[in-house]
Write a structure and sequence with these properties.
Dihydrodipicolinate Reductase, domain 2, 8-stranded mixed beta sheet, two-stranded parallel sheet, disordered C terminus
């Protein structure tokens, strides 16, 4: 079972999905296609090869401007998050993909949520800051209030990487590191996502983004959206 992101709107539903697939002995994968952007994967290879040294900080920005509040994610009937469900969940997954293997699990998360333009039930802009077990940090901004060039930044004690325009469906954009431009081939990241999931089924292994990772993403989204809403005076 390959599901879209986020895999559920609350922790209990996500846990039930993981349990049901485990009991039925079927694979459960979650569609975070940014992991198969070839530029992102080359950055990860460089990190694993030690070219960045110890990771210290990561930042991700992904936004889009909505003309009104008619998007289905803005409604409490079928959604729980707006910008967090459209973009933030991807930002969070990319941060965890890059940072957790070296820096350990998330030990602290704080957020600031804005709902003041259309005053609906869900986040319009979300600013989320994260600390990992190693002491490394990360932050991301998701919003449906303004257009921006999508961007990621990764900083280690020996180098850095900055990507612009890579957080989309096309697999393009540009990536620069402390050594200069990082060349990569443009390919459809959804093809990589499906290929990995098929290989997981055939090889009876877990997909790269399995149900447990999808569950962890939901747990953190719930925490990110939980600060009390204080109406503007």
């Amino acid at each position: 079972m390959l599901v879209e992101k986020p895999m559920a709107t609350d922790v209990e539903e996500a846990e039930a999905m993981v349990k049901a697939c485990h009991n039925a002995k079927v694979q459960l994968g979650v569609g975070y296609h940014l992991r198969w952007h070839s530029g992102h994967r080359k950055v990860l290879e460089a990190i694993r090869a030690g070219e960045f040294g110890e990771l210290r900080h990561m930042r991700v920005l992904w936004t889009s401007r909505s003309a009104d509040a008619n998007n289905w994610r803005a409604s409490s009937d079928v959604g729980r998050w707006w910008s967090l469900a459209a973009f933030g969940t991807h930002c969070l997954d990319m941060i965890r993909w890059i940072m957790v293997p070296q820096c350990g699990e998330v030990v602290s998360l704080r957020s600031m949520i804005s709902r003041d333009f259309w005053k609906g039930p869900h986040d319009e802009t979300a600013l989320v800051s994260i600390r990992f077990r190693s002491g490394a940090t990360a932050e991301f901004c998701s919003s449906i209030l303004f257009d921006s060039v999508s961007r990621f930044e990764i900083y280690g004690n020996k180098g850095y990487a900055v990507g612009e325009g890579t957080l989309g469906r096309e697999g393009g954009g540009e990536v620069r590191t402390h050594l200069g431009e990082l060349k990569f081939s443009i390919s459809n990241p959804f093809v990589g996502e499906i290929t990995d999931f098929v290989a997981a089924i055939r090889g009876q292994r877990q997909p790269e983004v399995d149900g447990n990772e999808g569950l962890r993403n939901v747990e953190l989204l719930v925490r990110a959206a939980s600060p009390p809403y204080v109406p503007a005076s």
